[in-house]
Amino acid sequence: MSISAGASPATPPAASPSPVIFDLDGTLVDSEPNYYEAGRRVLAQYGVTDFTWEHHTRFIGIGTRETLETLQREYGIDAPVDELLAGKNRAYLELARAHTEVFPEMRTFVERLHTAGHPMAVASGSSRSAIETVLAATGLDAWLTVLVSAEEVAQGKPAPDVFLEAARRLGAAPETCVVLEDAPPGAEAARRAGMRCVAIPYVPETATDPAFGSARLFLPGGQKDFTADAAHRWITKDEKYEDRRVR
Question: Is position 238 annotated as part of the catalytic site?
């Protein structure tokens, strides 16, 4: 077939920007100190006085309800899980409103993705009210409006439910999505969802966890290794960054 004079060959359509799904706690914001303090306060009300930060780190990446179910069993607490959950949520929301730190490069990254037209969502093990409170308190709600809580799906991480629901709400195929995660259960959930994962360990000791082995971009040093520029170049398939594992 010939091309008439003055016509130019059709240009293939540009690829749509990849949808990006963020974990919240430990990935976008450093909320774990608040979650630890909220949990410590609630457990103390039921006679548990030896709950330490080291105990708390076992549950990073696990939904709040699942965490409290385990702690209820381990400490032999008679109160219903719903009572513990309500108490911890109240304490956490008070702390979160007072102060929640956004990782600076993550804020820059979210702004850059928004400017470039990437659909974005937050998929978290936290309650819906906690997610909304943190995003509002930090100003991230200006860019992140699609939210999924583990309360809204059948199973929390490491099941893929929250990520699959986030993709559904974005109108995106799971395989086109990129997940940012700080914890092994979240990385495993991304793998099960069939999504590419950028892994940024919050707890340094978890960097060797096998669940991070499926991450397509792995930053073992956590947030100190993360830059908005490098992450965006990788997501947009800059040859220098694609499938790079930073060690």
Answer: no
